[in-house]
Structure to design on (292 residues):
């Protein structure tokens, strides 16, 4: 049943207002965790799960993303001339070599559903993944690989979820598993889904994380969604329509997730990545303990 998911969609046209002034000139996805932009972590995750084409839904006001994934011949020559060959591997990673990067302009930030719909013709007839690079996952296998493993069992659209405490549940899409039971791989069929409910109205404590695998039937569902009060077409509302026509699964992933859309999450991620890095782990512990 195993089917590769060859295309990965990255909706990256948002304004990143929570990180102003940093995001005045730099897209939030280009903020770095140590020395690598957030977006590159997610691109690596997609590639290691089998993606061959990365489709960025971006804004013409954010040219640095395209620049980051393009050749840099002048810089490369200067590094070569000064014998810094190790650094050439960093600006031209081997794993990105045979990947196609496609850029689609989203003229206005009209929501995640709208962004995904813009990729319809680029996606063709195969299932595809969606990665929100704000969410950084540190796990082996990766979060995307885990939902791909679940998807491969029944070829039904599958989304990554995790348990969230009550005071934070209003920040996420929340699933209702109804009476459906988790299977042995911690995957459950979704009965309903709600975007950012108040804690009192949340149907469960299981929230949507930023990784999805969709069959192409999602596109027709997005077309049925009306914009919400803030003018956005939510993917959560399209998933509601999808549930009416076919089964949709949610997989509780294993591993750590960092919400780098928030300053706390971003700081937490930076420390976590440093702690896992053999060069930094002792140094970062010392830096923190010395300050206590
Ligand atoms: C989006 C989705 C939400 C999901 C979240 C995961 O929200 O709309 O359902 O839980 O990503 O990060 P956003 O963070 O873009 O507001």
């Amino acid at each position: 049943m195993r089917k590769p998911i060859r295309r990965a969609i990255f909706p990256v046209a948002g304004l990143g207002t929570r990180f102003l002034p940093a995001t005045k000139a730099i897209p939030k996805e280009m903020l770095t965790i140590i020395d690598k932009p957030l977006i590159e972590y997610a691109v690596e995750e997609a590639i290691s799960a089998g993606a061959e084409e990365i489709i960025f839904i971006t804004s013409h006001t954010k040219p640095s993303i395209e620049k980051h994934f393009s050749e840099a011949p002048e810089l490369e020559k200067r590094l070569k001339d000064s014998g810094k060959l190790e650094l050439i591997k960093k600006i031209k990673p081997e794993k990105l070599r045979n990947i196609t990067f496609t850029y689609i302009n989203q003229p206005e930030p009209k929501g995640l559903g709208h962004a995904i719909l813009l990729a319809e013709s680029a996606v063709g007839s195969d299932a595809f993944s969606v990665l929100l690079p704000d969410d950084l996952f540190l796990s082996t296998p990766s979060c995307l690989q885990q939902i791909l493993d679940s998807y491969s069992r029944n070829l039904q659209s599958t989304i990554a979820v995790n348990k969230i405490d009550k005071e934070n549940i209003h920040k996420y899409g929340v699933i209702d598993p109804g009476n459906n039971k988790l299977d042995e791989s911690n995957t459950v069929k979704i009965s309903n889904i709600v975007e950012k409910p108040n804690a009192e109205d949340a149907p469960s404590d299981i929230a949507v994380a930023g990784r999805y695998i969709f069959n192409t039937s999602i596109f027709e569902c997005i077309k049925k969604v009306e914009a919400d009060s803030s003018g956005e077409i939510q993917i959560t509302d399209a998933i509601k329509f999808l549930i009416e026509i076919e089964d949709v699964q949610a997989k509780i992933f294993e591993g750590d997730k960092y919400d780098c859309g928030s300053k706390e999450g971003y700081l937490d991620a930076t420390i976590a990545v440093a702690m896992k890095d053999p060069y930094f782990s002792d140094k970062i512990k010392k830096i923190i303990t010395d300050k206590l």
